[in-house]
Hints:
Layout: E1 11-17, H1 24-37, E2 42-49, H2 55-60, E3 66-71, H3 77-87, E4 92-96, H4 107-111, E5 122-126, E6 133-136, H5 140-156, E7 168-172, H6 173-180, H7 190-200, E8 205-209, E9 211-213, H8 222-243, E10 252-254
Parallel strand pairs: 1-2, 1-4, 2-3, 5-8, 6-9, 8-10
Antiparallel strand pairs: 4-7, 5-7
Helix pairs in contact: 5-8, 7-8
Amino acid sequence: MPSKTAALGSLSVVIPAFNASATLSATIAHVRAWLASVELPHEIIVVDDGSTDDTARSARSIGPPVRVISYAPNRGKGHAVRTGMLAATREWALFMDADNSTTIDHLERFAALLDSAARPDVVIASRRLSDSRIVRAQHPVRQALGRTFPYLVRAIALPHIADTQCGFKLFSATAARDIFSRMRTERFAFDVEALLLARHLGYRTVEVGVDWDNPTTSTVQIHRDTFRMLWDLMWMTARVRSAGGRSSSPRQSRARPD
């Protein structure tokens, strides 16, 4: 019986990591075990974003199929994801969080869409669809930011996407190279630029509900990063729109639960 993930062919898993030694090894172990269980050819790329702890050393100690890209100083999650996605060599490239807030087995939901006639180029996880499930809620202050930023994104940039910020996104190899080679945002609002570029370059994006477990080790600093994210949102929207692309028509949709 073919695996539910067979439509992927092969997979690069990119994990951006900053001072993540407390959670990274467990996440990699879970990813490796699940990918082995579904017999999906893969590579795991850990991008150490200028960590000051043992993140890089602990990742390197695992060995193949884990590759580690390390640099200093810290550049931001967007830079780390861009670095890893451009280093990916397989048919599809997924980036996911080092704290495993959305687990790798969600790929079964994603892969199910790849056999459809309207095969997407980009599949993104969402915490805001009817079939999404929040396992542990965020602190009330983070919840407030979590409600406000998506509203601004929909109003300014991406009206058809409910959740741009969930850190679990899958790209075809062609889309990953095309999008991330153009991406310039280095910190937490980078997801918005990636999805803006996907739309303007004509790549079809599908949003899928997932289970999400609130990361207790988030590196977002509310007072500092909120204003930076808002500035990045305005800047990137203007930049992408002025640059144009192969298509200006949005091609987003939301996957319905079975």
